[in-house]
From TrEMBL:
The gene is rfbB. This is dTDP-glucose 4,6-dehydratase. The keyword Disulfide bond does not apply. Its EC number is 4.2.1.46. CDD domains: dTDP_GD_SDR_e. It comes from the Bacteria. Its cofactor is NAD(+). It comes from Nocardioides cavernaquae.
Length: 332
């Protein structure tokens, strides 16, 4: 395996993975990315031109994908519409990219007999009660709640069907909530950090008791590389770093790290159908493939993330007013 095609490689997690591959392997990487509002060319800046190439295009473009897949050894598929709140306002791009786009990639890897790793989310399993002693495992039944998570669930099921019916060489991973540099400011953590930089109070949906299982994006990348290189074909691996925190705790940590009173936030209108809790049991990945996360200290990881947004205002500031206006229109 020398040539890797990374879909969605100009997004938050895909670009992290491209940097990770360049640091830790001698692979050459082609990124295919439509450069939607969520992408950023800057996230790929400085990478060696003889190792990384960006092709601007749509994963639902069958002839483009046929051509790119024919020239690669393996595909790592990150491209997606990724934000739950957007999927509640307009599901249509989620159906088009997450379902039709994945189908298009599957047909190309089937035709050219190429290896595929499909990147997905723990949200396909629905949510857990706060006091449920169980966490998600590879055997948890699918039960997605939102247009986003149901479109990702649909894409996972297509991948599994192409593996079983056509013998396509796939692995799948379902990861919990990522944080770190280059995350779009529509998402929870960067939204609150950039609000505070702007002198605006953090906004908590509902009571703030919903739990997310945080993992640093660097750890997601090392896990995907491990599965790509050593995972068993046809298998699913859950990726998580034992990072459960409720949203109130996370906002209070950000407030403290940025020198504010930890009660200086406001409650806003809750998300429709808001999942209560996600929690990952990553035993299979750890025991079978020997993976473990590097970022075990959430407070230290968050301090680095706060500093990154403080130092990269040129990157996020042009997007901030529009994002906040859209949230404000919904009482959020
Ligand atoms: P993101 O929104 O930051 O990036 C998505 C990228 O995909 C963007 O660069 C965008 O331009 C590109 N893209 C969108 N539609 C496309 C299309 N039709 N053709 C080509 N490119 C297209 O998303 P992210 O947070 O980096 O998530 C990446 C993947 O990881 C997604 O599949 C998501 O479901 C999965 N995931 C995300 C998280 C998380 O916490 N963010 C956790 C688990 C899994
Ligand atoms: O679990 C993995 C998923 O994590 C990924 O599949 C998604 O692509 C990714 O966006 C993320 O989904 P969430 O919906 O959990 O992330 P988000 O950052 O939108 O919200 C995190 C939590 O914070 C959630 O409970 C909603 C809440 N929230 C969000 C925003 C934007 C707030 O309380 N206030 C906010 O302003």
């Amino acid at each position: 395996m020398q040539k890797i095609l990374v879909t969605g490689g100009a997004g938050f997690i895909g670009s992290n993975f491209v940097h990770h591959l360049v640091r830790s392997t001698d692979y050459t990487v082609t990124v295919v990315d439509k450069l939607t509002y969520a992408a950023s060319r800057e996230s790929l800046a400085g990478l060696p031109e003889d190792r990384v190439q960006l092709v601007v295009g749509d994963i639902a473009d069958a002839s483009l994908m046929d051509d790119l897949v024919s020239k690669t050894d393996a595909v790592v598929h990150y491209a997606a519409e990724s934000h739950n709140d957007n999927s509640l306002n307009d599901p249509s791009p989620f159906i088009q990219t997450n379902i039709i786009g994945t189908y298009t990639i599957l047909e190309a890897v089937r035709k050219h007999e190429k290896r595929l790793h499909h990147v997905s989310t723990d949200e396909v399993y629905g949510d857990l009660e706060l006091d449920d002693p169980e966490r998600f495992t590879e055997n948890t039944p699918y039960n997605p709640s939102s247009p986003y998570s149901s479109s990702k669930a649909a894409s996972d099921l297509l991948v599994r069907a192409w593996a079983r019916s056509f013998g396509v060489q796939v692995t799948l991973s379902n990861c919990s909530n990522n944080y770190g540099p280059w995350q779009h400011i529509e998402k929870f953590i960067p939204r609150q950090i950039t609000n505070l930089i702007d002198g605006v109070k953090p906004k908590l949906y509902g009571a703030g008791l919903n739990v997310r299982d945080w993992i640093h994006a660097d750890d997601h990348s090392s896990a995907v590389q491990t599965i790509l290189e050593n995972g068993r074909i046809g298998e699913t691996y859950l990726i998580g770093a034992d990072g459960e925190k409720n949203n109130l705790e996370t906002v209070q940590l950000i407030l403290r790290l940025m020198g504010h009173d930890e009660n200086d936030f406001e409650h806003v209108t809750d998300r429709a159908g808001h999942d209560m809790r996600y929690a990952i049991d990553s035993t299979k990945l750890r025991e079978e493939l020997g993976w473990k996360p590097e970022f075990q200290d959430f407070e230290a990881g968050m301090a680095n993330t706060v500093q990154w947004y403080q130092e990269h205002q040129d990157w996020w500031r042009p997007k901030k007013a529009e994002i906040e206006a859209a949230y404000a229109a919904q009482g959020q």
